[in-house]
Amino acid sequence: MNSSQHSDSSQLLSRIKKIGSTVFADVMDNQNTMDYRVKPVNFLEPLVGRVRTVSVPKGDNLLLHHAIYQAEPNDIIIVNGQSFTGAAYLGELMAGAAEALGIKGIIIDGLVRDKRELRQLNIQIYAKGFSPSGPSKEGPGSFDTTITCAGTIVSPYDFVIADQDGVVVVPQQNVEEIVEKAEKKLAYELNRLETINIYKKQNKQDKSDIEPKWLQDKLKKLNL
């Protein structure tokens, strides 16, 4: 990536960081949203960035080890763990090594362990839960291929937005269009919030002052 591309990518990430996962889910018609059970283990702030992908057999983390040492600083690793619940894919040691290498976050369709220790780290981990059981390390698996993770298709270098509501993936080929839609949706929501707050402060009585403009049209179609 040359300096111009790096600058463009940084500007794009700055725009994405201002918008939450819910807005992106809305403008993509709730597509590309991971299973609701994938949640932050140690939420610090919204996790936003470009992704590297890993697919592993159920209960095996060999390719996740490989990915940690292949990824670049600020990458976010997404792991298709097939929602396996018989063992954890990652614990304190792997997460600590990834943090030392500058990886920003790891998102796993599966379980992790060392809950207390993970919560002390700055690298942000997302998973479906915890288990004390460890994984095998035999492989096979894949790195940097298109995968399905928690119901969502993810390709290398797609963009991810993860926060306390969940995880949303934005395909890189549509990212500019989707970010523009998300910015407009965010502006609409902020305007609505301002209107609601003014209504509360002024103790108004006319409910139509804060009624969404689209509501009556929808109700008329139902003869309500």
UniProtKB/TrEMBL annotation:
Its EC number is 4.1.1.112, 4.1.3.17. PANTHER family: 4-HYDROXY-4-METHYL-2-OXOGLUTARATE ALDOLASE 3-RELATED. This is Putative 4-hydroxy-4-methyl-2-oxoglutarate aldolase. Substrate binds at G91, E92, L93, M94, R113. It comes from Alkalihalophilus pseudofirmus. Catalyzes the aldol cleavage of 4-hydroxy-4-methyl-2-oxoglutarate (HMG) into 2 molecules of pyruvate. Also contains a secondary oxaloacetate (OAA) decarboxylase activity due to the common pyruvate enolate transition state formed following C-C bond cleavage in the retro-aldol and decarboxylation reactions. Mg(2+) binds at D114. The lineage of its organism: Bacteria, Bacillati, Bacillota, Bacilli, Bacillales. Keywords: Magnesium, Metal-binding. Homotrimer. It catalyses: 4-hydroxy-4-methyl-2-oxoglutarate = 2 pyruvate; oxaloacetate + H(+) = pyruvate + CO2. Gene3D superfamilies: Ribonuclease E inhibitor RraA/RraA-like (3.50.30.40). Pfam families: RraA-like. One of its GO terms (molecular function) is oxaloacetate decarboxylase activity. Its cofactor is Mg(2+); a divalent metal cation. Belongs to the class II aldolase/RraA-like family. CDD domains: RraA_family.
